[in-house]
Amino acid sequence: MKNLFFFFLFSISLQFYGQISDFEHIDFKKADSIANVYKDEDLNNLTNLAYSLSENLDTDIERFRAIYKWVCENIANDYSLYHKNKRKRERFKDDSLKLQSWNVSFRKKLFKKLLKRQRTICTGYAYVLKELANAIDIECEIVQGFARVSTTDIENLTLPNHSWNAVKLNEKWYLCDPTWASGIPNPETNRFQFKYNDGFFMAEPSLLAINHFPVEEKWWQLNVTPPTFNSFLNGPILYGDAFEILERHISPEKMHQDISKNEMIEFQYQLRNLVEKDEISLLLYNGTTSWTTKPSSVSIDNRLLNLKQVFQHSGFYDVHLYIQNRLIATYTVKVGD
What we know:
The chain has 11 helices and 18 strands. The chain has helices at about 1-20, 30-35, 45-55, 60-75, 80-90, 95-115, 120-135, 180, 205-210, 230-235, 240-245, and strands at about 75, 120, 140-145, 160-170, 170-175, 185, 190-195, 210-215, 235-240, 245-250, 255-260, 265-270, 280-285, 290-295, 295-300, 305-310, 315-325, 325-335. The longest helix is centred in the N-terminal third of the chain and has 22 residues, at about 95-115.
C-alpha cells in the first residue's frame, strides 16, 4: 500500500512537471533579444507592436514569449493606483451601483495612464498581453481571481483582487502572470523596480494555485480537485523566488501548524533543479529574537526535497524557508508545552 501511494504521488508529479517541460526544447534567446530591441516602443499601435515582436520568429510559443517578455520589461506596476482602487472597491463592496460606477470611471483612468506613461496594475498587464497575442492570432484570455501575498488581509479578502492570463498553444492552455513577473517593490523606497521573474511564464498550475484562486473553475488547469477558497486562504505564503526554484509545493498544506514540544514538522517540495543541502536554511522568529539555522534534517532524492525541523521550546514561531539565500516560503508554528 505504501509503495502504491508513492507511485501515485510520483505520477501526479509527472503530470504537473509536464506543464513546464512542454517547451524545454525551445531556446528563447532570440525571442528575448527581439523583445529587447523594441524596448522603447510605445502602446499607441498594439497591432504594429505585436507584428514587430513576432514576425521573425518561427513558433507560436516563441512569438508569445517575445510579447510576454516585452510586456514584463516595459510596463511598470503602479502601486499607488492599485491601493487607491483597492480602497474604493472595499468601500463600495456592499453597494453594487456605486461599485459599478467606480469600476467604469477607474477603467478609463487606468487605460489613459497605461497608454500615456506605461504604468498600470494587474488589469492593464493582462489586457495588453491579451491584445498583443490576439493581434497575431494567438488565443489569450484574462483570468480574474484572488491573489495572496505576505501582506494580504485574508480576513477581508472578499472581492477579486488580481488578474493574470491563460494562453492557448498547441491546443493546450497555459498560465502566466505578467504582473508578478515584471518586478518587485524596492526594499528601501517601496517603489516598483523592474526585476523579471521567469517562474511566472508558463507557471506550474499546482504551484500557482497556492496564491492564485481564479473565479472561473476552468482556469485552474489542475489534474486534481481544485482547493476550496478556505484552504486557499489558509495556505502557506509563497514568494516570487519560489516560482523559479520550486516545481511544486507538497507540504505543509497550511500556513499555520500547532504542535507539541519536541515534535517534528516535515516540509516537502519538488525542485526545478538540484540544489546543495548547505544552500538550505530556516530563519526563525519567536516574537523577540530571530536566528538562522539549518533544518534538523535535509534529504534530496531526484529533486524531491524533504526537510524536517524539531522545535524543542514552546512558543509561537515565524518560519521562513531560504534556498540559495532566496526567500521561498513562510509558515507559522505554535509549539505547546
